Task: structure prediction
Amino acid sequence: MRILIIEDEAKTAKFLKKGFGESGFVVEIAKDGLDGLHLALEIDFDVIILDLMLPHIDGWQVLERLRQADRQSPVLVLTALDAVHERVRGFELGADDYLVKPFAFSELLARIRSLLRRASPRQQETIRLADLEIDTLRQRATRAGQRLYLTSKEFLLLSLLARHAGEVLSRTLIAEAVWDMNFDSDTNVVDVNMRRLRGKVDEPFSLKLIHTVRGAGYVMETER
Ligand code: CA
Result:
């Protein structure tokens, strides 16, 4: 689970990073509104914690621009502002929950978990596209009933593409999703692994499912 914390107060940010890290989250911190907005537009976080009083652009604007850009990651607003009209404004702008500082970490964690449950009420177990079938629980994939023997990274890559069938995914996004957040070397590893994956998933079959979109990335679909 990937969480973005947009918080300018270093002490709070550090405390949250430690707490969520220990609770099994991959944590990214943004120290101001602009940085936070850019990160949130670039990466699909599972959940976002948003402070309101922030340098550059405030939390309201971050929220508004995120929703305008159709980013639907659940957002919990964490703030010292507690007036009723502030809360109402937050919800109107598309906040999913609201917690007032000072807070207990256990309460924050419980609320975040509840937001995550609401956002994905059930994990999809089987993904199908044409004759491709991916069983995400048993980590098995087949095409036309034939088992595909994939490494765990190849399986992740395949599931990512299939979950977003029809969407072009950039190399950066793929690298971050499959090889972890702070993937900073070049994205060549994506191409290399994609080639291997295609060798297993597409080469033996006449219907190709994985396509390269020049200058943009990769897409999975039945025709292109
Ligand atoms: Ca602040």
The mean pLDDT is 89.
